[in-house]
Amino acid sequence: MSSEEDGPLVGRADTLTQIQSDLHSAGPGGTSAVFVTGESGVGKSRLLRETAVAMRDAGFAVLSGMCLDIGDASPLHPVLQALRQFDHNVQPAGDAGALLDRVSQDLRAVAGDRRLLLVLDDLQWADRSTRQLLLYLLAGLGDVRIAVLAAVRAEALQGAHPLRKVLAELRRLRSVRVVDLAPLDRDRTVELVGAITGGKADAEDADRVYKRSGGNPFVAEELARDLRDGRVELSDTLREIFLSRVDELPPHAHSVVHAIAAGVEPVGHDVLARVVPLSEAELIEAVRAAVDHRIVTGADDGYRLRHRLVAEILAAEVLPAEATVLHRQYALALEPSAGTPAEPDHARLAHHWQKAGEPGRALPSVVAAARSAEELYGFTEAHRYWSSALELTTDAAPERTELLAHAAESAHQCGEHLRALSRLDDLSRRPDAPSQCDLHLRRARYLAAAGRTATAEAEYERALEAPDCSPRQRASAAAYLAELLLHLGRYADANARAVDALEMAEVNGSTADLVRASAALGFSAAFREDPDAGLAVIRNAVDIAERSGHPDELGVAYLHLAELLAGPLNNIEEGVLVARRGAARLASLGAGRTYQTRLLAIAANGLFRVGQWGEADTVLEAAMRHRPSGADAVELLLARCRLWVGFGDVQAAHRDLDAVATLLAGGGARHVLPMLTLRAGLAMWQGEHATARAAVQRGLTETRSDDLVLIGVLAWHGLRAEAEAHAAGQPVDAGALRRLTVAVERMAAGVGNAALPVRGVIDGYLDLCAAELSRVEGRQDPAPWAKAATTWDKRRQPYPAAYSRLRQAEAALRRKSRKTAAIGALREAYATATAMGARPFAAEIVSVAHRYKVTLADDVPTREFPAPGTGEADELSLLTVREREVLAAVAEGLTNREIGERLFISERTVGVHVGHIFDKLQVRTRVQASRVFLTAA
Amino acid sequence: MNQSVWGPVHREMTDLLQGHPDDVPAVVDQLRALQEVLGHVPPLLVGNPLCDFNKLYLTITEGVLERLYAGKFKDPAFLSRLDVEFAARYFDALRAWAGAGTSPRCPEVWACLFQRIPGPDCRPLPSACAGVNAHINFDLPFALVTTFDHLGTDPIDESDQHHDYLEINDIFAEAIPGLRRGYLEKWQLLIDTMNGCLDDWWQGEAVEYTRNVAWRNAQKLWGVRHDMLATDRERAGLDRTAAGLSKLLLSPLGSFLQ
After folding, report:
1. Whose C-alpha in A141, A271, A375, A823 is 20 to 30 A from the C-alpha of A729?
2. A155 CA to chain B: closest CA distance, Å?
């Protein structure tokens, strides 16, 4: 589009500069975004074009896409279309996450070593997949140094538009700006009029232009042109301006304009040639005229009306019959012909056939569009296509049964639970409906997803009782039911059901059912205080999955085992081992990316808890290399952010928190609590008590989580914030304190009902809360802190234990009582902190030591912390930190039992470690292993 | 715009509306600040109709916050989100208001009330009611849809969310300006009439009733939320209906409420 076609740009210089500088200054995650909102005609697209040119000149790779307003667009349309301009045709991928990764790769390829600017116009029409992709890229997960510039019509943001929510969340991030583009004021409008008329308009006329246009530059520009061209009476409305302009066109150009108005922009020249019955020469002349009259613009990919406002005006002018004919011609032009083997654009084809009043001919395209949307994991879009396919058929149509099944399943996939259920009801009334058992199973699955667990349970029961239920279906139903009961916390019922399910699955079930049933049995047994039995069952499930060798089954089985060990059984060390082994096993198969990511997340969280932060960092880095998306990405980012907070890397912590917030803008309320906890933790290290308090209070009031552990961490952070405020001589917020106490009371009341393994953790947090409360109240009492330290020692979690020791020592030193014990505690805490690399925590210990003139470094030399992840490049570098500790002990000649006692881990876990060490060092005996260790050391 | 509709408090108003509160305490703060600013809009000052509505709305939101803090809701996450989304729409309407006929982005139903800010004088009760009407009959269904979308759940009858949603009715009943019973009944009568459902008159559950209309509307919108054209149509329809009611409330007829 040449710049002379555009009128002068008035009153936007500052905005333009600001937008460019915002796009340039990427946030900590290497991404930036500007969303321009404003009414139609206010100049959003113009601003986008000008910025794109300037950024290209500044060395950015620029990619532009436009969203379609046909209601049903195909998933990722604007981005895929933009990539196609660079000859990148994105191929379907193994799963939704892999697809996002593939799109990112193509974007990186286009960008080369430049930064990338993605320009998206009319974002209000973007499909859900496109919005998700944007968030994925802006969260930095695609590893593309991207700047996004998008225009959104303000009118569209009214009501309940999904972008509203997204923008509301993104607005808070530093790297995202939302620019509300206002109409021009009087002076600027007059300036614009002057520029167009060459200064010939008198003040009175210019003023009238301002009044009529309300400062809308598009309207003002057209009014000014009327003035300049000597049209005597200013038209009153935009509609009149354009209708009179169109009327002035020669007849052929007139039909071209109406044809384009009925099409889906951009309208390609070849398509237009088939829609308008003109000779080549006539068509070109007609298009030329329409362009000269400033109604149409042409670009490489086809023709567009100059402005969407014009399209809307013209659409209202075309008679319904005329429109029908035009749509029919478009449809015919788009139908695949013998000469073109390429797949037609089903979304457009369906649109035109429907508008042409020929639903029968639309159906094949609608179905094809639904299938290709499913290939791109655009379940929302697929669901809409299946729904319109249903609208196009009557009850008598034989294909309706299949369509209903697809519509129900796609609704379930995109979270439209009610819709899925009602489609399923329709399906069950078909004469050729699936079997009763099948219907019950589906209904149960949909109900469970909708959170209606009681009815879901009843449906599973019905499926089991259905006379047409095959043994395989029965095994499957029982396994699902056991799983559901487990989630409901009904361990006894889950256990009984799981025993049945396992029996059935052993005879008739698939491996997947077997694994599911085993997991339900294992967890329910563990929760019912028979951990060994539970563990045995799940270990057996892993063996079964190993024999099947199927990646999904292996993934699930390892996941269950690792979760059971690291979670309820509190055998973190072995949980971490299992998780890493499972991830390595799947990696060797080259499959199960999602499971690898989840397993590594479990390992990292476990390593964090046992204080091996450097190792956790390494594992997280490996997990992030899988480029997770969605909830998996959020969990990893939260885990990594927890490390940054611990290490005291403020910038990295902020980056990950921003990335989490970006992803959560697309939905995902269940991760809000951990995010707020981390925000509070970070703020506290920075001495921002008010920020910490606000985050915790928001978490307390805005969640209904019945997860007492999450509440426990949050409440502890809240009380700690009040205590630190108190210690810093700032006022304690009485209201906040009251609400925190209520939360703690709720925990104390609920802890009795928690499963035994969870109880220990909650008790730990209750101890911390009680101790912080004593600090808020100014009682310098070391006793509650000593108690907390003991509890966390028992849980083998060094970080909270060391923190408790610090406070215990602080209180004792303040009271000047039991000074020796205090100094011991302080030194122990310091040793732990330095070993973990917990910089801000260590700094806090040092400042307490200074205050009370305690030397910390009798036996622990004060030293720089080694950067996490750096190790010697010898044979031992293959080993994890823990494995090296075990090896050192082996070299001392200790037995597994002795090593276990020294390192506070079970004898069994030591055995597993030793096995890994042998594998990695390629040795077979303890003596050989010791030799390698002694040579390297 | 050279002349602001907000007159001498233009600056304060613009600054205030820069804020996009994202939790309930922040909403309360913003409404409180707004109350202060609105009291300085000439010529009616504290007597202007928007002041009356804002005061009522502030009271109600404070009530919500109090109950949130007291743990009275089954799903506080839902309710907080809803409260924030709900308020955002009122603030949006204020931001979009630039005067009669020049505010294409301001919903008609709000424009009816905003137009009356300079006068002629209107009785406080109908004014507050017109605001409540705009907020409940127009804004609420959309706020509900966005909230459910955010939390990834469906609007299901008898759910925890529905329970909490209905809980707010009590707050309304308590808050409607120290209402003596008589006023409330008249007000109910009028709103019920306008909703066109004469059968429900005698039930005497006006606020509950209109709020349930909003819940139903939200369910309807929920079904078409991915269809921008259908959503737009619904929005225009709701705006028209609600605006009709507001005009009536603010007409001389509405004064029988006082």
Report:
1. A823
2. 6
- In SS3 terms, A191-247 reads as HHHHHHHCCCCCHHHHHHHHHHHCCCHHHHHHHHHHHHCCCCCCCCCHHHHHHHHHH
Residue A870, judged by CB atoms within 10 A of its CB (0-12, 13-18, 19+), counts as exposed
Q: What's the confidence (pLDDT) of residue A937? A: 64
CA distances, A22 to each of A27, A36, A117, A179 (Å): 9, 12, 12, 11
Q: Which two tokens stand for residue B130?
A: 């017109």
Question: Tokens at residue B235, please?
Answer: 């929005």
Residue A2 has pLDDT above 50, yes or no: no
Share of chain A above pLDDT 70, in %: 94
Task: Note the pLDDT tens digit of each residue in A196-243.
Answer: 888 777 888 888 888 888 888 888 888 888 888 777 565 667 777 778
Instruction: Check pLDDT > 50 for residue B204.
Output: no
Chain mean position to CA A299: 35
DSSP annotation of A35:
E
**Pairing mode, strands A296-299 and A176-180:** unpaired
Contact partners, residue A782, CB within 8 Å, separation at least 6 = A808, A809, A811, A812, A815, A817, A818, A822
Task: Report the first-to-last Cα separation within chain B, whole angstroms.
Answer: 37
Looking at chain A, the number of H-run helices and the number of E-run strands are 45, 7
pLDDT at A236: 66
Q: Of B88, B83, B94, B38, which is closest to residue B61 (Cα–Cα)? A: B83
Q: Is A557 strand, coil or helix?
A: helix
Per-residue pLDDT at A744: 93
Q: Mapping DSSP to helix (H, G, I), strand (E, B) and coil, where does residue B47 land?
A: helix
Phi, psi dihedral angles at A152 (to 5 degrees): -130, 130
B88 touches chain A (CB under 8 A): yes
pLDDT in tens, A741-757: 988 998 898 888 777 77
CA distance A614 to chain B (A): 35
Q: Give me the residues paired with residue A62 across strands.
A: A117
Q: Which helix (H) or strand (E) holds A166?
A: helix A162-170
Q: For residue A16, what pLDDT band results from cuts at 50, 70 and 90? A: very high
B235–A159 C-beta distance less than 8 A: yes
Q: What's the pTM?
A: 0.79
User: Prior bond to B43 cis, omega within 30?
Assistant: yes
Compute the distance between CA of residue A267 and CA of residue A362 in angstroms, rounded to an integer: 20
Instruction: Point out the residue among B80, B107, B146 whose CB comes nearest to the CB of A165.
Output: B146
Q: What are phi and psi of A117, to 5 degrees?
A: -115, 120
Per-residue pLDDT, B253:
59
Q: Which of residues 389-428 of A touch B (CB under 8 A)?
A: 415-419
- HSE-CB at B36 with a 13 A cutoff on CA atoms is 9
